[in-house]
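Handout, section 4.2: multi-component inputs.
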Amino acid sequence: MDELILLFISVFAGFLGALLGLGGGLIIVPALTLFFHVHIRYAIAASLISVVATSSGAAIGYLKEGLTNLRLAVVLETGTVLGAIIGFLISASIKSSFLYLIFGALLMLSAIMMLSQRETQEVEINHPLSESLQLSGVYLGVDENLKPYNVAQLPLGLFLMFGAGILSALLGIGSGIFKVLAMDTVMKLPIKVSSATSTFMIGVTAAGSVGAFFLRGDVRPEIAAPVAIGVLVGAFIGSLVMVKIPASRIRKFFVIVLVIVSFEMMSKGFSE
Amino acid sequence: MNKVSPRQAELKIANYIGVFLKIGVITAGFFLVTGWAWMLIDGDHEVRALQNYEASSLTERLEWAIILNDRAMIFATLGLALLVLLPLLRVFITVVLFGVSRDYKMTVMAFFVLLALIFSFSLGLNA
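Output:
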């Protein structure tokens, strides 16, 4: 019975993850620790597996649609993987309550930032580095027209990806939230491109630490298997739905998720 | 022969990666589903048994699984291993495909990511 509940929760996490460009780790870790009382180290490792599963499952659809900015993903992955390695190395010495508090506060700040974003995004000026690496792209809008976009503030974006990578390894998440925020708010990409590119990237971010956790024996099939299966199914369904939903609705939904998770994280930080 | 635009090359590469991920996910999924279903049937791998942390490396637990003939565990672990390797292999393919399309800046960047990932995996061997 426990296993089936876990499977169901994982399908939901995968669906939400694919929809918003997250890895579902924000649902999986609390579900495993609070509901099933699994030790946090096993929960984090299993959650990272779910991130790889979401990323791999959902990316298939987005790559086909041409939404994923592959070149930008490769550039930003240099930052996230380095961050993930650092995160893995320091994971043993950081107090988790401190992390939860910082994380919760950051999410609340991000929700506020996202709410104050304008609805329609004009095409920003390409950062010189983005120009040299040919990172700008086009995507198919809801009105079926190809819309161009550029990539602003690339160095700052890269730095934020490094931070996201550290948090990924420390908290067992894909840091999709920070990737989407960085791409949407800082680099001025369209929200659907941010979401699709984030989904593509979180697998590599998670891989930056999950390989080590796996070889260390922290990935337990009893929980990681149902989590991976559920998330794969949910992510696949989510990716089919995402391309049909208007951008503004995705952003609003994202803000609600941010606020809920922010309260969750901060209360966990205060209670530990 | 017409020179392919970077956008077209990128879309082609994206397509190949998409196909690779599809095959990888289905293969990993097969082992995961089979292994997990088997574990459920065996009935002795409980979620609630993981409340306390016990350090034991992957090799140790695989050795035990072989000794105890726990094929369900081996199958599930194989599925997980395939899943864990997918991003690594995906980056490797990206290196090759960008190299073939002579996009050397991207090839170097992707290769850097690949090296970093391989290094990160090796950290788990010594921990």
